Amino acid sequence: xxxxxxxxxxxxxxxxxxxxxxxxxxxxxxxxxxxxxxxxxxxxxxxxxxxxxxxxxxxxxxxxxxxxxxxxxxxxxxxxxxxxxxxxxxxxxxxxxxxxxxxxxxxxxxxxxxxxxxxxxxxxxxxxxxxxxxxxxxxxxxxxxxxxxxxxxxxxxxxxxxxxxxxxxxxxxxxxxxxxxxxxxxxxxxxxxxxxxxxxxxxxxxxxxxxxxxxxxxxxxxxxxxxxxxxxxxxxxxxxxxxxxxxxxxxxxxxxxxxxxxx
Length: 263
Description:
It comes from Chitinophaga oryziterrae. Keywords: Lipid metabolism, Membrane, Oxidoreductase, Transmembrane, Transmembrane helix. This is Sterol desaturase family protein. It is a multi-pass membrane protein. One of its GO terms (molecular function) is glyceryl-ether monooxygenase activity. The structure is a single chain. By secondary structure, the chain is mainly α. The protein has one domain (34-251). It has helices at 5-28, 36-70, 79-102, 104-110, 140-144, 149-164, 184-190, 208-212, 236-249, 254-261. The chain is globular and about 55 Å long. Mean pLDDT is 92; it is low at 254-260.
């Protein structure tokens, strides 16, 4: 999703204010959801991710563009179809996210996002720099049914932006919204290494898919964050490549690799 430079700065400033507010909340309430090294690691990973977005933008658009060109129909650019695109993109994101947890090659990309023992807004951008190599493939079906390329990119971008606000302990459960929309409570469950919480709540914006495919789990016990193996590091490059190292080196059997680090 292309965002003009001045709009990017406004969004960045807004998100920075939220992070600072969360740091103040954590300090005043002695929540200890921030650590200097952990936060610095997240910010360095974010910087690298921003560079990777630029490097892989052409590749991503080429994948979706190719699917668009061979689509049998091309739907109009209307708000009605943008709404449909947003829902379809969230459905496809659910499966992309779910498969990323159960299939070792994709878990190699996604592992980093679950490697932090803390939950705060900076954790949202603990993302693999090479994830752009695989993510557009999962949105090809949206292009093949004729949804506009720009709508697909915008829907995925908004989906990820929405998820930024879910990575926090500041907000408690949201009553009737739980189980319908993805909420901070639902996403805390997703990041939990508790046996009860493993492989739950994959939706980006909506929890309807988790309800439909029986992967929804409400927050009922204190969440323990991080990988089930206990692996953690404050070195960005180690975190970026840890999943790939496990995949290729195969220090354990494939079945143990997937179950051992899954979250």
